[in-house]
Automatic annotation (TrEMBL):
Family membership noted in the UniProt record: Belongs to the 3-hydroxybenzoate 6-hydroxylase family.
FAD-binding domain mapped to chain residues: 8-334
Listed SUPFAM superfamilies: FAD/NAD(P)-binding domain
PANTHER family: FAD/NAD(P)-BINDING OXIDOREDUCTASE FAMILY PROTEIN, FAD_NAD(P)-BINDING OXIDOREDUCTASE FAMILY PROTEIN
Protein name as annotated: FAD-dependent oxidoreductase
TM segment ranges: none
Keywords: Monooxygenase, Oxidoreductase
């Protein structure tokens, strides 16, 4: 038997899980986070848009996160030969978004969301094997056989989730046709965050604190093509003739700060909740990285769900309301990220046509798209829809 005195169990202490647990705690609810890693992960850096910062402000964690990152104006998009494709003007973007985006190391982000030691009870080295609904609540089973009763379970174990199959069938992940590299360069760059579109490739950078800069490169590569033997040499060669500072960033990146991963995609879950068991973040809606919104939407999810679960005695009703309100909004973000990624990595004629089409689009369209998803107001609209 489970009951309303049981804690809410959060599976996974990534970005989504940390946000959910911090929101539950801020609203006075009892939560336990179970994380399979023995120690917090590192995992490169991330751009955090104002929609995520607004969500974190709701639970009092925004300023801690700002203190751990570095704000940057948004520059725009250039071609690999240096010509500008889209340049909306940094001041105009800041006004539309409500503040600047932040560059932050992932580990620092998760730590800043979680708060001082012990603020959120996290058990590291706790791998969840199964989640089941029970009369009046739910239960999780750990790899060592331990079972924990829960008032509700928040599934936040990422795109490779093994625990969501009780909510809905899990669609298979498919290779998207391109590979991504993420690096942290020991080089200070004081320019606005910029993206570059090349032949079936994309690159970009964003300033971090401590004279470091986060950068990325994605490149079309057939699934059966061999991976480069030396990632550092490969990215230095690809970026050698690109506009500054891309080549310098690749050259100033230690091997330990360069990560390669094939970009994979799977359809979002058909349903995100069943009774008091509910999925958030990449577990519910993995997305391609081109809008830099996967982590931001994971934070919105965690904060909104945490506040609802803390307020609503009927956890199943809260989970269902959350899922109904969020699915439509996030589906649009997932779809746009997929369309952009596909066009950016298409073979040359399609890819070149996509560049040309965007070069003609007025920057007002780019700003409107950012405002609809990445602004402080975008989060506030989502919160209002849920009565928060
Ligand atoms: C190249 C790239 C660049 C990106 N750039 C950005 C960006 O700039 N901005 C942005 O907002 N997003 C970005 N994203 C997306 C972002 O990284 C993800 O959307 C985000 O990490 C999702 O967070 P999550 O907490 O849902 O999942 P994860 O970060 O994957 O966390 C899941 C956690 O669950 C734990 N776990 C897994 N299984 C179990 C289990 N069985 N039991 C217990 N614990 C478990 C894992 O160890 C992990 O800690 C990018 C993604 C990629 C691939």
């Amino acid at each position: 038997m489970t009951g309303s005195r049981d804690p809410i169990v959060v599976v996974g202490a990534g970005i989504a899980g940390a946000a959910a647990a911090a929101a539950l705690r801020a609203a006075g609810a009892d939560a336990v986070v179970l994380e399979r890693r023995r120690e917090p992960g590192s995992g490169s850096a991330i751009s955090l848009w104002p929609n995520a910062l607004a969500a974190l402000d709701r639970i009092g964690r925004g300023d801690a996160v700002r203190a751990a990152g570095r704000p940057s104006p948004t520059g725009g998009t250039r071609r690999e030969d240096g010509r500008w494709l889209m340049r909306p003007g940094a001041a105009r973007v800041d006004r539309a978004l409500g503040e600047q985006a932040l560059g932050i190391r992932r580990a620092d982000l998760v730590a800043a969301i979680a708060g001082p030691d012990g603020a959120v009870a996290t058990r590291h080295g706790a791998t969840v094997e199964a989640v089941a609904r029970r009369a009046g609540g739910a239960a999780v089973r750990l790899a060592d056989g331990e079972e924990l009763a829960a008032r509700a379970v928040v599934i936040a174990d990422g795109s490779g989730s093994t625990t969501i199959s009780g909510i809905a069938p899990v669609p298979a992940a498919r290779y998207a046709g391109y590979v991504g590299w993420r690096g942290i360069a020991r080089l200070r760059v004081d320019e606005p965050a910029t993206q570059f579109w090349g032949p079936s490739m994309e690159a970009g950078f964003l300033a971090l604190p401590d004279a470091e800069t986060y950068w990325f490169l994605t490149e079309r590569l057939p699934e059966d093509a061999p991976a480069p033997a030396d990632d550092g040499a490969h990215v230095r060669r690809v970026l050698a003739d690109w506009p500054a500072p891309m080549a310098a960033l690749a050259a100033a990146t230690p091997a330990a700060e360069l990560l390669r991963h094939p970009v994979r995609d799977r359809r979002s879950l058909r349903r995100w909740s069943r009774g008091p068991v509910v999925a958030i973040g990449d577990a519910a809606h993995p997305m391609r990285p081109h809008l830099a919104q996967g982590g931001c939407q994971a934070i919105e999810d965690g904060v909104l769900l945490g506040l609802l679960l803390a307020r609503e005695p009927d956890a199943a009703a809260a989970a269902a309301r959350f899922a109904a309100a969020r699915r439509r909004h996030v589906a649009g973000v997932v779809r746009n990220a997929r369309l952009i990624g596909t066009a950016l990595h298409a073979p040359r004629p399609v890819n070149a046509a996509f560049h040309a089409g965007n070069a003609l689009a007025p920057s007002v369209a780019m700003v409107a798209q950012l405002r609809a998803v990445a602004s402080r107001r975008a989060f506030e609209r989502q919160a209002r829809r849920l009565g928060l």
